[in-house]
Task: inverse folding
């Protein structure tokens, strides 16, 4: 089990790329922080989520 | 430069006034700082004016767009500036407000390719775009390619909801996010000056706090 945006999520072993797609996030509108570090978009496919990870998906909305 | 017939006060006099209101230590640190503002719309024009007034030494101001009549309800431009590039119009306005700041303006679109060369001199980078995908692109690019920089981004300032919903959150050591985090301009009604300015004020204050070592 790991935490995504404060919620328990059963996604250990999945890549960040597949978790993001399954969870319905729009990849071009997000930034992902994992255990205090930003994961660059180019690394989503090779980043494997692990038990105990703390992930924040920052979903940007328009306006400025 | 015309100041309505009154001569421009010398730099020393303006600095002394800043020291009186902001404190000598803060002014000294701000004078040495370089802050970039990416996007000069509702967020960026307000951020830039706040930072210029506060005595930031150098501002790097970037926008590819021109002033449109639909900008004037929330952006720091004037009716007679409609149609001219925002970078040029804001520079004119800033020079009247804070003439001794060093301004570097770029009339270009920030991309993943040019971001490093545009932003490498900045101590703090403020993301002030309007499109969500541009915001995410800049955050991703800065945090990947310029990881030593502080980045202050914004998400969520549309609607007539309470201003108390607009917050500053620290996401990582270097990355701060201001806004309500939810109200998308394409999904809710209302993009109103005070709420945009609240978000811009959060960003400008966070940038100042970072320069002062208070974050």
Result:
């Amino acid at each position: 089990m790991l935490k995504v945006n404060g919620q328990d999520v059963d996604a250990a072993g999945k890549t960040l790329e597949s978790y993001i797609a399954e969870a319905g996030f729009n990849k071009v509108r997000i930034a992902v922080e994992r255990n205090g570090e930003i994961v660059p978009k180019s690394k989503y496919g090779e980043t494997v989520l692990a038990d105990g990870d703390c992930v924040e998906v920052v979903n940007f909305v328009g306006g400025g | 430069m015309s100041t309505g017939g009154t001569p421009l006060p010398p730099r020393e006099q303006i600095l002394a006034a800043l020291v009186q209101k902001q404190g000598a230590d803060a002014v000294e640190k701000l004078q040495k700082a370089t802050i970039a503002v990416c996007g000069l719309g509702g967020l960026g024009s307000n951020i830039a004016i706040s930072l210029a007034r506060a005595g930031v030494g150098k501002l790097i101001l970037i926008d590819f767009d021109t002033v449109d009549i639909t900008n004037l309800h929330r952006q720091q431009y004037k009716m007679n500036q409609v149609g001219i590039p925002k970078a040029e119009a804001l520079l004119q306005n800033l020079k009247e407000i804070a003439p001794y700041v060093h301004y570097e303006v770029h009339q270009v679109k920030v991309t993943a390719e040019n971001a490093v060369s545009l932003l490498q001199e900045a101590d703090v980078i403020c993301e002030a775009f309007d499109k969500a995908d541009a915001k995410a692109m800049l955050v991703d690019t800065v945090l990947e390619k310029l990881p030593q920089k502080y980045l202050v981004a914004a998400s969520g300032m549309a609607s007539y909801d309470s201003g108390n919903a607009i917050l500053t959150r620290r996401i990582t050591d270097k990355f701060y996010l201001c806004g309500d985090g939810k109200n998308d301009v394409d999904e809710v009604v209302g993009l109103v000056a005070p709420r945009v300015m609240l978000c811009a004020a959060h960003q400008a204050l966070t940038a100042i706090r970072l320069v002062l070592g208070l974050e």
Residues 31 and 41 of chain A are 8 Å apart (CA to CA). DSSP finds one helix and five strands in chain A.
